[in-house]
Amino acid sequence: MSEEKVIKIRLHQAEKCFRSARGEEQQALAPVDLEIAAGSFVCLVGPSGCGKTTLLNLVAGFERPTSGKVEIDGCPVTGSDRNHIMIFQDYGLYPWKSVLGNVLFGLRARGISADEANERALVALDMVGLRTAVDKHPHELSGGMKQRVAIARALAVAPDILFMDEPFAALDAFTRIHLQDELLRIWQERRPTVVFVTHDLDEAITLGQRVVLMAPKPGRIQRVLDIPLTYPRERTRDDFAFFRRQLFEEFHLVHQQAADDVEYSI
């Protein structure tokens, strides 16, 4: 008998509109419905302008929906939450603080004692393989190491939810694959709910239990695809290729629809 899933994040007809400089209302995100189970790993994927980051900002509490509902644990999202951590592409490290100092910052800001904060920070740095780099500063680190510091800083405060906005986009392919593997290992140990934005279809299939493919003009959900493959996922296997083909076919439809819209408008 399968275990019943607990819904962590729920969007119901959530829509986001902005007003342009000329005063025109623009729909960035059409009304969407989406449920994300507690402890799951969900990837949002799609072309630029499809509303991935807008949707992420709504569930993270950085923006409010124009209409509809956004809920976490059954409660309306009215702002950011200290138990829900965002990891960005640009790392967001304090350049004047050491690796350890960056990870300690959030812990100390929560009033955690120095001894406990130090212990938790070192455990988090161990998890990302940076225990020997505690005294280094950001300018001494590679891009991959900086992103691992950002992940360690998030893990140290034991968040319920990790929001990740294309965190590996600026990294080389080898570092990116390594950090994907590290992130999966940590997620399997800790089981936070992860909402991960990417424009890379292979990354989405590698990481996500579910992949939410989004389309532009306006931003909307095109398809939600379950990926029932065991971890770790081998990119050269036929079953991986099967899901890649499905996403590429949907992706082609998204681009074809966008091209048809442009042709029609001309």
Offer a concise description of the structure.
The protein is of the alpha/beta class and 266 residues long.
Give the CATH H-level superfamily of the largest domain.
P-loop containing nucleotide triphosphate hydrolases
- The CATH topology of the largest domain turns out to be Rossmann fold
Binned, the helix content reads 25-40%
What is the helix tally? Answer: 7
Number of domains: 2
Q: What is the CATH domain class of the largest domain?
A: Alpha Beta
Quaternary class: single chain
Overall mean confidence score, pLDDT: 88
Strand content: 25-35%
**Low-confidence runs:** 262-266
Under the CATH scheme, the architecture of the largest domain is 3-Layer(aba) Sandwich
- How far the N terminus sits from the C terminus, by CA atoms, comes to 55 Å
Main β-sheet, in a few words? 6 strands, mixed
Radius of gyration: 19 Å
Q: Report the principal-axis shape.
A: globular
What is the number of strand segments?
10
Major sheet strand order: 6-7-8-3-9-10
Structure in words:
This protein is of the alpha/beta class. It folds into 2 domains: 7-83 and 160-265, P-loop containing nucleotide triphosphate hydrolases (Rossmann fold, 3-Layer(aba) Sandwich); 91-158, no CATH class. Helix content is 38%, strand content 25%. The chain has helices at residues 52-60, 99-109, 114-127, 143-156, 173-190, 201-207, 238-265; strands at 7-19, 25-37, 41-45, 67-72, 75-76, 84-87, 161-165, 193-198, 210-215, 220-226. The chain has a 6-stranded mixed β-sheet, sandwiched between helices. A 4-stranded antiparallel β-sheet has the order 2-1-4-5, covered by helices on one side. A hairpin with a 5-residue loop joins strand 1 (7-19) and strand 2. The radius of gyration is 19 Å and the shape is globular. The protein starts with 6 loop residues before the first strand and ends with a helix. Residues 262-266 have low confidence and may be disordered.
